[in-house]
Structure formats: structure tokens, C-alpha cells
Write a structure and sequence with these properties.
Blueprint lengths: L11 E4 L11 H9 L4 E8 L5 E3 L20 H5 L19 H10 L3 E6 L7 H15 L5 E5 L2 H10 L7 E5 L6 H8 L3 E5 L5 H9 L3 E5 L4 H9 L4 E4 L20
Parallel strand pairs: 1-2, 1-9, 2-4, 4-5, 5-6, 6-7, 7-8, 8-9
Antiparallel strand pairs: 2-3
Bound molecules: SN-glycerol-3-phosphate and magnesium ion.
Magnesium ion (MG) binds next to strand 2.
């Protein structure tokens, strides 16, 4: 089994970029995260109808753009005409949907880390998504600054078939961690487990840490409520508003277990 890259994972990761203060999953949201000193971001990626990978969360356009309809019906030329910032505030009017290529260029230029989530919608192909994303991701970002995650196990298995664990760190993403979480991690040679912080238990956290995995929680935005999770061994919080943790700072990160 190849060793995992030595990832210096920060305590705080900006969810969909700095999404409390900028339109989620945009270049502006990533720059905003960088500007507050948050150098890792979580981002969602999926495919347009023409196969272009773009940074987007929803299956539809309505919530986060001036368009409507399904992302899967859109072509790149149409996507480029959408405003994806004005829905958030006037300050971001004119923001354009980021392709994966646009986003990787920005991340690479800022030496940022990314937890890239393969977002596989209903009736969409996780393997097609992985095929479109993984080669571009590996070309642009060194393995020490990547964690690829997904709720979709088929997508992750296909991603793993494209690159081994020394090149592509993979995180298993679950809403709540199942009892048999470990075989899932082992079959993927995963580096980390990512879960909804409100559903994590101290016992499950201990099991995961004792087995040598990184443990990441989404999406805590209340540092006081989250404080005990640091004591359970959580490595990183994926927050919409990492700056809000300034008053109740997490304890210093421990070095990762070897392997
Ligand atoms: O990757 C963690 C988190 O982003 C998963 O949920 O719906 O915000 O993509 P969602
Ligand atoms: Mg996500």
C-alpha cells in the first residue's frame, strides 16, 4: 500500500469558499478565504450538459444565479452568460460561474489546498464526473494540497482506479458515520472521514482517530458549540465562516499519525 501524502491540514477549511461572506463556490469566495488567511477550501464540482466540469453545488441554477433550469442542460457558452454573484449581494454582481479549470488555476496560483467534492446528482454518472475531474486536478495541484471526497462511493472507487493513494488523497464523506465505516475507508485506501458535525459521536470519533484516519466535520459555524469536537480529536472544521472561530480558537493541530 503506497503511503499517503503528508498533508498539513489546517484546523479551519472554508466551505464552498468563504460562503458566509461571498457567493459560494466562486472565484471570489476562494479569494475571500485566502484574504482572511484561510488557505484550504471545500468546493463542489459537477458537469454541465456539454461535459465541462464546473464549481457548483445545486442540481439547478435558481438559488445561486440569475438563470433557471437544470445545470445538466446547460452548455458552457450559456453558463458564461449567467450572473452568479448578484443573488448574494450587489458587490458581487458580474461574477461568472467558475469552470474547474478556472478554479484550479486560481488555487494553484495562490498555493491553496482543496477538498474537492464530487457532487453526483440523481441520474448523473459519478464515473463520468471522476473521468473529467481527476486528470485536471492532478495536473494542477500537488497531492499534499488535495483531498477528493464524495457521498458517492462509485465515484470515489472510479477515482481511486485512476490514481493511487500517494497521488490522490481520498476522503469518505457521510452524513452520519455508519457502523461499518472502516471497510469503506480500507477499500478506497482513504486518508480521511468527513461527516456532519451535528451527528458525530465521541465514540465514533475515537474509533476513526485510533485507526489513523483524519477526521473532518462540516459545517460548524458556532465555535462554542463545536468546542468539544476538538477534544474528540476532530482534525478540521469545514465552516462557512472560519473567521468566527477567532474568539474561541481550536487547539493547535497535532501531527498526523505516520502512514
Ligand atoms: O463536503 C462537505 C459538505 O460540503 C457536504 O455537503 O451539501 O454542503 O456539499 P454539501
Ligand atoms: Mg460540498
Amino acid at each position: 500500500m503506497p503511503p499517503h501524502p503528508d498533508i498539513a491540514l489546517p484546523r479551519l477549511i472554508a466551505h464552498r469558499g468563504l460562503s458566509a461572506h461571498a457567493p459560494e463556490n466562486t472565484l471570489a469566495a476562494v479569494r475571500a478565504a485566502y484574504d482572511i488567511g484561510c488557505h484550504w477550501v471545500e468546493l463542489d464540482v459537477q458537469l454541465l450538459g456539454d461535459g465541462t466540469p464546473v464549481i457548483w453545488h445545486d442540481p439547478t441554477l435558481k438559488r445561486c444565479s440569475d438563470g433557471h433550469g437544470r445545470l445538466s442542460r446547460l452548455r458552457l457558452a450559456e453558463a458564461r452568460g449567467l450572473d452568479v454573484g448578484a443573488w448574494f449581494s450587489d458587490a458581487f454582481r458580474g461574477e461568472r460561474m467558475a469552470t474547474l479549470a478556472n478554479m484550479l488555476d486560481l488555487l494553484a496560483s495562490l498555493d491553496m489546498g482543496v477538498n474537492l467534492e464530487l457532487k453526483v446528482g440523481r441520474n448523473r454518472s459519478g464515473t463520468e464526473l471522476a473521468d473529467a475531474v481527476i486528470p485536471r486536478l492532478l495536473d494542477a495541484i500537488p497531492p499534499e494540497r488535495i483531498i477528493l471526497s464524495s457521498f458517492d462511493m462509485a465515484a470515489l472507487h472510479h477515482a481511486r482506479s485512476l490514481a493511487d493513494a500517494s497521488r490522490l488523497p481520498i476522503g469518505v464523506l457521510t452524513e452520519s458515520i455508519p457502523q461499518k465505516w472502516q471497510p469503506r475507508c480500507e477499500t478506497l485506501d482513504a486518508i480521511s472521514v468527513h461527516t456532519d458535525w451535528t451527528r458525530l459521536t465521541a465514540q465514533r470519533a475515537r474509533e476513526i482517530k485510533d485507526a489513523g484516519y483524519r477526521l473532518l466535520c462540516y459545517t460548524p459555524n458556532d465555535p462554542a458549540a463545536f468546542a468539544r469536537h476538538w477534544l474528540w480529536g476532530v482534525d478540521s472544521a469545514i465552516s462557512d465562516d472560519p473567521g468566527c472561530f477567532a474568539g474561541i480558537a481550536p487547539p493547535p493541530a497535532l501531527p498526523p499519525a505516520a502512514g
